[in-house]
Design brief:
The chain has about 425 residues and is mainly alpha-helical. It has 17 helices and 3 strands. The protein folds into 3 domains: about 50 residues; about 130 residues, no CATH class; about 220 residues, MetI-like fold, CATH 1.10.3720. Helix content is about 65%, strand content about 5%. The protein starts with a helix and ends with a helix.
Length: about 425
């Protein structure tokens, strides 16, 4: 009797220890998840706080006389300088004028030129327009410059602070939504730099990547899963596909450099080549996802189709493939999202070049959003720091959108067996 009691107590004590260990393990898991989420939130908040300022740009209002003589000489910036001299007539020395002209961006003249080209009747008249301020003035308006610092330790002089304060008091300087950031290409001047060129380059690259990798990946998966004999050669192919999915992306960049540029002589720094390189990198992922989607289709579907007289090809194309296609599309979108964030392969094929013009087709020189972020992060100007973070926000938005689309497709078309 006492032995039974002792055994029962031992069992209860062992159960209690196991339950306590299980609770501790759950707590460790919750703590690890909380720490990981905390770091993620810290990173996202830091990027957002640093990059949100790039969505606004300081603009200065000026009344500019469109001088016909200067217009003939294409001296549009000279008209901007004349307007600044009229606003601050007490500035007469050369050094003061140089500081005064530095309030305005060097791209203000191009804005005036575009306005006059769109409406030639403005020649000989005074026009009022908002023009981009320099990056230093923009940092002042956003609170990025400490006025209490010694003048020798900052890029803005005390005299420039006086001019900025006067413009602010007269309502001639303010922060406006930075449409140029979304419509312009790259520039050496931070206030003129935009992501349109990189965004179009990424779009063209992804289009080429999808058109090459998705059909080839689906066809390869169908053959390997439905038609290929099971022997050592197919086993070797499967092992290589799985290994290629884990190969570092820069290796595919080296392959693209050797094959597409050096051997085939395709244009350097083009979206066409970038898409082909990313297609090589994405292809193993799409093949693996497509094979898993095909395996998820119940064997009864195949057996029923074959039983009513369908051929092997008809069974796959008319019955199995439509049911597996949502999973294939989900895998393809996830692969495209990975390709969108890749930088190393594109660096190897020359898409790291400084390109001002927005690409118009697949063979024009272009860059991509991750490469643009890399270029801006290496720039010394402080204003490029917030534009780097803003470009990261845009890239994350695209990645989140693509993953949301993948989840929606899976939920909408997924079949429960």
């Amino acid at each position: 009797m006492s032995d039974r009691k002792t055994n029962s107590e031992l069992i209860e004590a062992g159960l209690a220890r196991r339950y306590r260990a299980e609770r501790r393990f759950k707590m460790y898991g919750i703590a690890a998840t909380a720490v990981a989420m905390s770091f993620l939130v810290i990173v996202l908040v830091a990027i957002f706080v640093r990059g949100v300022g790039a969505f606004n740009q300081t603009q200065i209002a000026q009344v500019v006389f469109v001088d016909p003589e200067l217009a003939k000489e294409n001296d549009w910036q000279g008209m901007i300088k004349a307007s600044l001299r009229e606003t601050f007539p007490d500035v007469e020395d050369r050094k003061g004028k140089r500081l005064l002209y530095g309030l305005m961006s060097s791209g203000a003249g191009y804005d005036l030129q575009n306005m006059v080209q769109n409406d030639a009747s403005l020649v000989g008249q005074k026009v009022q327009l908002w023009m981009p301020a320099s990056d230093d003035v923009d940092m002042v308006m956003k609170g990025g410059v400490d006025r209490n610092q010694p003048e020798s330790d900052r890029r803005i002089s005390d005299q420039e602070f006086v001019w900025i304060d006067k413009l602010a008091a007269d309502g001639m300087i303010e922060l406006q939504f930075n449409t140029r950031f979304f419509t312009a290409g790259d520039s050496r001047e931070p206030e003129l730099a935009g992501i349109m060129g990189a965004a179009k380059g990424s779009f063209y690259t992804l289009v080429v990547c999808f058109l090459l990798s998705f059909p080839l990946g689906v066809m390869a998966a169908i053959y390997l899963e439905e038609f290929s004999p099971k022997n050592r050669w197919t086993d070797l192919i499967e092992v290589n596909i799985n290994n290629l999915a884990a190969v570092p992306s820069i290796v595919f960049g080296l392959l693209g450099l050797a094959m597409f540029l050096n051997f085939f002589g395709l244009p350097r720094s083009a979206s066409l080549v970038g898409g082909m390189v990313l297609a090589l990198m994405t292809l193993p992922t799409i093949i693996i996802a497509s094979r898993l989607a095909l395996r998820s289709v119940p064997p009864s579907i195949r057996e029923a189709a074959l039983a009513v007289g369908a051929s092997r090809l008809q069974t796959v194309l008319d019955h199995v493939l439509p049911l597996a296609l949502p999973g294939m599309l989900t895998g393809a979108i996830i692969g495209m999202a990975r390709a969108l964030g890749e930088t190393a392969p594109l660096l190897m094929i020359g898409m790291v070049a400084f390109i001002v013009d927005v690409p118009g087709n697949f063979t024009d020189p272009a860059t991509a959003l991750p490469v643009q972020i890399y270029l801006w992060a290496d720039s010394p100007e402080r204003a490029f720091t917030e534009r780097t973070a803003a470009a990261i926000i845009v890239l994350l938005a695209f990645l989140i959108a693509m993953n949301v689309v993948a989840v929606i497709l899976r939920k909408k078309f997924e079949q429960r067996w």
